[in-house]
Amino acid sequence: MSRPEYAIRRATIADVAVIAHHRAAMFRDMGELDDAEMPALEAATREYLTHALPAEEYLGWVVDTADQVVAGGGVLLRPLLPRPGAPRGGAEAYVLNVYTEPEHRRRGLARQLMQAILAWCEARAVARVTLHASDDGRALYESLGFAQTNEMRRDKAR
């Protein structure tokens, strides 16, 4: 059996449902969401993306094979205040939703997605690219030049 052919493209409004599914599945696979919680997260993500994708508040890339999307990732852009290393400020790209369907893993798709995202950022002179790495994704991101930082987080009380 031959390996499927894959193609990376920018996400469109037609991809909202699969991006929402990938986001929920990503959190489930990391152990942060159980199956019962997935429908609510998918619905909220679809609602958000229906506005954010056409407005380019969320920029997405997907990997197609045959007639299905099997992987994807996205970027949120935010202003970067002037700081050491970026004295003029600029834009910061926050990478999120990097996910590959289990049966298509270990084929370099996440690396290809990240290379496409990083090339897009480079072409637009994005000053900084950040992300949160899962344990499974850490080696990939480190191999692409990402380094751990001292970021901290405080979640809203539930």
Task: Describe what this molecule looks like in 3D.
The protein has 158 residues and is of the alpha+beta class. The protein has a single domain (7-143), classed as Gcn5-related N-acetyltransferase (GNAT) (Aminopeptidase, 3-Layer(aba) Sandwich). 32% of the residues lie in helices and 25% in strands. The protein has four helices and five strands. A five-stranded mixed β-sheet has the order 1-2-3-4-5. A hairpin with a 2-residue loop joins strand 2 (58-65) and strand 3. Helix 1 crosses helix 2. The longest helix is centred in the N-terminal third of the chain and has 15 residues, at 38-52. The radius of gyration is 16 Å and the shape is globular.
Provide the descriptors you would attach to this structure in a database record.
single chain, 158 residues, alpha+beta, Aminopeptidase, five-stranded mixed β-sheet, globular
CATH architecture: 3-Layer(aba) Sandwich
CATH class: Alpha Beta
Q: Summarize the biggest pleated sheet.
A: 5 strands, mixed
Low-confidence stretches: none
CATH homologous superfamily (4th level) name: Gcn5-related N-acetyltransferase (GNAT)
What is the number of domains? 1
**What are the secondary-structure elements, in order, as H or E?**
EHHEEEHEH
Which strand-content bin applies to the residues? 25-35%
Q: The CATH topology, please?
A: Aminopeptidase
How would the global form be characterised? globular
Radius of gyration equals: 16 Å
- The average pLDDT score comes to 95
N- to C-terminal distance? 49 Å
Helix content: 25-40%
Main sheet: strand order? 1-2-3-4-5
Q: What is the number of E strands?
A: 5
Number of helices: 4
Class per helix and strand makeup: alpha+beta
